[in-house]
Amino acid sequence: MNTPDYYVKFYRIYLRFSMVMMIVALLMGILFQESSKKAPISELLPAGVHLESIISLALVHGHTFLIGVLIPLAVTWMLYLIHTLGGRPVSEKSLKIGTMLYLPGSVMAILLMLYKGYHFLLGVRSGQLDFTVLDQTFFMGSHALRASAYGLTHTAMAVGLGILIFSLWGSLSKAKNAS
Protein backbone atom coordinates (compact mmCIF):
# COMPACT_ATOMS: atom_id res chain seq x y z
CA MET A 1 0.00 0.00 0.00
CA ASN A 2 1.61 3.22 -1.18
CA THR A 3 0.53 6.16 0.98
CA PRO A 4 0.71 9.54 -0.79
CA ASP A 5 3.03 12.09 0.86
CA TYR A 6 0.20 14.56 1.35
CA TYR A 7 -1.76 11.90 3.29
CA VAL A 8 1.20 11.50 5.64
CA LYS A 9 1.36 15.28 6.08
CA PHE A 10 -2.40 15.35 6.80
CA TYR A 11 -2.07 12.52 9.35
CA ARG A 12 0.76 14.32 11.14
CA ILE A 13 -1.07 17.66 11.25
CA TYR A 14 -4.28 16.13 12.59
CA LEU A 15 -2.59 13.83 15.07
CA ARG A 16 -0.45 16.66 16.46
CA PHE A 17 -3.49 18.95 16.60
CA SER A 18 -5.42 16.25 18.50
CA MET A 19 -2.59 15.77 20.96
CA VAL A 20 -2.29 19.49 21.65
CA MET A 21 -6.04 19.85 21.99
CA MET A 22 -6.16 16.91 24.38
CA ILE A 23 -3.79 18.77 26.68
CA VAL A 24 -5.80 21.98 26.20
CA ALA A 25 -9.03 20.10 27.02
CA LEU A 26 -7.54 18.74 30.22
CA LEU A 27 -6.37 22.23 31.17
CA MET A 28 -9.86 23.58 30.40
CA GLY A 29 -11.29 21.07 32.88
CA ILE A 30 -8.87 22.18 35.56
CA LEU A 31 -9.49 25.83 34.72
CA PHE A 32 -13.23 25.31 35.04
CA GLN A 33 -12.93 23.51 38.38
CA GLU A 34 -10.67 26.17 39.86
CA SER A 35 -12.66 29.09 38.44
CA SER A 36 -16.03 27.76 39.59
CA LYS A 37 -14.71 27.54 43.16
CA LYS A 38 -14.48 31.35 43.11
CA ALA A 39 -18.28 31.57 42.82
CA PRO A 40 -19.63 29.12 45.42
CA ILE A 41 -23.31 28.55 46.09
CA SER A 42 -24.39 30.97 48.83
CA GLU A 43 -27.25 33.25 49.85
CA LEU A 44 -25.98 35.83 47.36
CA LEU A 45 -25.52 33.19 44.67
CA PRO A 46 -28.33 30.61 44.87
CA ALA A 47 -27.97 27.21 43.20
CA GLY A 48 -29.79 28.08 39.95
CA VAL A 49 -27.86 31.31 39.44
CA HIS A 50 -24.64 29.49 40.30
CA LEU A 51 -25.31 26.85 37.65
CA GLU A 52 -26.24 29.46 35.06
CA SER A 53 -23.07 31.41 35.81
CA ILE A 54 -20.73 28.42 35.30
CA ILE A 55 -22.49 26.32 32.64
CA SER A 56 -20.92 28.10 29.66
CA LEU A 57 -17.46 27.60 31.12
CA ALA A 58 -18.25 23.97 32.02
CA LEU A 59 -19.07 23.19 28.38
CA VAL A 60 -15.65 24.30 27.12
CA HIS A 61 -13.94 21.17 28.45
CA GLY A 62 -16.21 18.72 26.63
CA HIS A 63 -16.40 20.75 23.44
CA THR A 64 -12.62 20.98 23.32
CA PHE A 65 -12.42 17.20 23.45
CA LEU A 66 -15.12 16.83 20.82
CA ILE A 67 -14.08 19.39 18.19
CA GLY A 68 -10.38 19.41 18.98
CA VAL A 69 -9.65 15.74 19.61
CA LEU A 70 -12.41 13.34 18.58
CA ILE A 71 -13.50 14.85 15.26
CA PRO A 72 -9.92 15.27 13.93
CA LEU A 73 -9.08 11.71 15.01
CA ALA A 74 -12.24 10.40 13.36
CA VAL A 75 -11.44 12.17 10.08
CA THR A 76 -7.86 10.87 10.19
CA TRP A 77 -9.04 7.35 10.87
CA MET A 78 -11.62 7.53 8.06
CA LEU A 79 -8.98 8.69 5.59
CA TYR A 80 -6.69 5.86 6.66
CA LEU A 81 -9.42 3.22 6.43
CA ILE A 82 -10.61 4.38 3.03
CA HIS A 83 -7.03 4.27 1.78
CA THR A 84 -6.59 0.78 3.28
CA LEU A 85 -9.81 -0.40 1.60
CA GLY A 86 -8.49 0.73 -1.76
CA GLY A 87 -10.53 3.89 -2.05
CA ARG A 88 -9.67 6.37 -4.69
CA PRO A 89 -7.25 9.00 -3.33
CA VAL A 90 -8.79 12.12 -1.85
CA SER A 91 -7.33 15.16 -3.58
CA GLU A 92 -4.57 17.10 -1.89
CA LYS A 93 -6.55 20.28 -2.50
CA SER A 94 -9.61 18.95 -0.63
CA LEU A 95 -7.53 17.94 2.36
CA LYS A 96 -5.68 21.25 2.38
CA ILE A 97 -8.80 23.46 2.09
CA GLY A 98 -10.70 21.37 4.64
CA THR A 99 -7.81 21.65 7.05
CA MET A 100 -7.34 25.39 6.49
CA LEU A 101 -10.99 25.94 7.39
CA TYR A 102 -11.68 23.35 10.09
CA LEU A 103 -8.64 23.66 12.36
CA PRO A 104 -8.65 27.47 12.77
CA GLY A 105 -12.45 27.44 12.99
CA SER A 106 -12.36 24.90 15.80
CA VAL A 107 -9.73 26.87 17.74
CA MET A 108 -11.77 30.05 17.35
CA ALA A 109 -14.94 28.26 18.50
CA ILE A 110 -13.18 27.09 21.65
CA LEU A 111 -11.83 30.60 22.30
CA LEU A 112 -15.32 32.05 21.85
CA MET A 113 -16.73 29.55 24.34
CA LEU A 114 -13.97 30.40 26.80
CA TYR A 115 -14.66 34.13 26.39
CA LYS A 116 -18.40 33.61 26.93
CA GLY A 117 -17.82 31.40 29.96
CA TYR A 118 -15.56 33.90 31.66
CA HIS A 119 -17.75 36.85 30.65
CA PHE A 120 -20.66 35.33 32.55
CA LEU A 121 -18.68 33.94 35.48
CA LEU A 122 -16.73 37.15 36.11
CA GLY A 123 -19.89 39.21 35.65
CA VAL A 124 -21.67 37.20 38.35
CA ARG A 125 -18.62 37.34 40.61
CA SER A 126 -18.63 41.12 40.28
CA GLY A 127 -22.25 41.22 41.47
CA GLN A 128 -24.26 41.29 38.23
CA LEU A 129 -26.95 38.62 38.67
CA ASP A 130 -29.16 39.80 35.82
CA PHE A 131 -28.23 37.52 32.92
CA THR A 132 -30.06 39.74 30.46
CA VAL A 133 -27.62 42.52 31.28
CA LEU A 134 -24.67 40.13 31.03
CA ASP A 135 -25.93 38.90 27.66
CA GLN A 136 -26.39 42.47 26.40
CA THR A 137 -22.84 43.42 27.41
CA PHE A 138 -21.33 40.36 25.74
CA PHE A 139 -19.00 41.48 22.90
CA MET A 140 -19.16 45.04 24.26
CA GLY A 141 -22.88 45.11 23.49
CA SER A 142 -22.36 44.71 19.74
CA HIS A 143 -24.81 42.19 18.36
CA ALA A 144 -23.21 42.52 14.91
CA LEU A 145 -19.75 41.69 16.27
CA ARG A 146 -21.14 38.74 18.20
CA ALA A 147 -23.06 37.38 15.20
CA SER A 148 -20.06 37.87 12.92
CA ALA A 149 -17.67 36.07 15.25
CA TYR A 150 -19.99 33.11 15.80
CA GLY A 151 -21.09 33.02 12.18
CA LEU A 152 -17.58 33.04 10.72
CA THR A 153 -16.28 30.51 13.20
CA HIS A 154 -19.10 28.03 12.76
CA THR A 155 -19.17 28.49 8.99
CA ALA A 156 -15.43 27.83 8.72
CA MET A 157 -15.75 24.69 10.84
CA ALA A 158 -18.81 23.40 9.01
CA VAL A 159 -17.51 24.08 5.50
CA GLY A 160 -14.08 22.63 6.33
CA LEU A 161 -15.54 19.49 7.85
CA GLY A 162 -18.07 19.26 5.02
CA ILE A 163 -15.32 19.37 2.40
CA LEU A 164 -13.40 16.65 4.23
CA ILE A 165 -16.41 14.38 4.73
CA PHE A 166 -17.77 14.76 1.19
CA SER A 167 -14.29 14.09 -0.21
CA LEU A 168 -13.99 10.97 1.93
CA TRP A 169 -17.49 9.86 0.97
CA GLY A 170 -16.75 10.28 -2.73
CA SER A 171 -13.50 8.38 -2.39
CA LEU A 172 -15.22 5.50 -0.64
CA SER A 173 -18.09 5.26 -3.09
CA LYS A 174 -15.66 5.22 -6.03
CA ALA A 175 -13.77 2.33 -4.38
CA LYS A 176 -17.01 0.38 -4.07
CA ASN A 177 -17.85 0.90 -7.76
CA ALA A 178 -14.33 -0.03 -8.85
CA SER A 179 -14.44 -3.49 -7.22
Largest sheet, in brief, is: none
Total beta strand runs: 0
| Helical proportion, percent range | over 70%
Shape, per Cα inertia axes: elongated
Number of separate domains: 1
Overall mean pLDDT score?
Answer: 92
Through-space gap between termini: 17 Å
The number of helical runs is: 5
Strand content: under 5%
> Which blocks of ≥5 consecutive residues have pLDDT under 50?
none
Structural class, by secondary structure, is mainly alpha
Q: Write down the Rg.
A: 20 Å
Order of SSEs: HHHHH
Can you describe what's shown?
There is one protein chain. The protein is mostly helical and 179 residues long. It has one domain. Helices cover 82% and strands 0% of the residues. The chain has five helices and no strands. It has helices spanning 5-36, 47-84, 92-125, 131-137, 143-178. Helix 2 (47-84) runs parallel beside helix 5 (143-178). The mean pLDDT is 92.
